[in-house]
């Protein structure tokens, strides 16, 4: 006889402190997903989704690494349940990637001349015009800014 699966998830201690913020960000994510794409380029329709995903990941990262407000068990639970992006947090821990907006900005295969995204160029090396990343809408995530 097969095992019966239940949807009961055991939440670690401290979950009740971060749950309201994560629920609010989930509601914003649903609104962004259901928002009209009329008059936008194909890539621009995804920018709000990338932004909210970045906010959730940064929130959990800051709670664990900077403020030390949550336990390791709760942090790993959030990563396992998909509330935060493991790979993005791994990059944020490395020097030079502390403000990285998304992983697509550092993948050379997605850009011309096999380089990184234009948002990774420090502001003092850019021209005066405003630059937006094609993938996520970022206006600059270089750590040297």
TrEMBL record:
<dbReference type="InterPro" id="IPR001748">
    <property type="entry name" value="BUD31"/>
</dbReference>
<keyword id="KW-0539">Nucleus</keyword>
<dbReference type="Pfam" id="PF01125">
    <property type="entry name" value="BUD31"/>
</dbReference>
<dbReference type="GO" id="GO:0000398">
    <property type="term" value="P:mRNA splicing, via spliceosome"/>
</dbReference>
<dbReference type="InterPro" id="IPR018230">
    <property type="entry name" value="BUD31/G10-rel_CS"/>
</dbReference>
<comment type="similarity">
    <text>Belongs to the BUD31 (G10) family.</text>
</comment>
<protein>
    <recommendedName>
        <fullName>G10 protein</fullName>
    </recommendedName>
</protein>
<dbReference type="GO" id="GO:0005681">
    <property type="term" value="C:spliceosomal complex"/>
</dbReference>
């Amino acid at each position: 006889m097969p095992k019966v699966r239940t949807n009961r998830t055991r939440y670690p201690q401290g979950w009740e402190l971060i749950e309201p913020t994560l629920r609010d960000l989930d509601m914003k994510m649903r609104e962004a997903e259901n928002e009209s794409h009329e008059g936008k380029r194909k890539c621009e329709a995804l920018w709000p989704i990338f932004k909210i995903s970045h906010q959730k990941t940064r929130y959990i990262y800051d709670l664990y690494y900077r403020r030390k407000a949550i336990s390791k068990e709760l942090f790993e639970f959030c990563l396992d349940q998909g509330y935060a992006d493991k790979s993005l947090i791994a990059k944020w821990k490395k020097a030079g990637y502390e403000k990285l907006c998304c992983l697509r900005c550092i993948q050379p295969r997605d850009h011309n001349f096999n380089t990184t995204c234009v948002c990774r160029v420090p502001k003092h090396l850019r021209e005066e015009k405003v630059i937006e990343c094609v993938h996520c809408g970022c206006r600059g995530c270089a750590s040297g800014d």
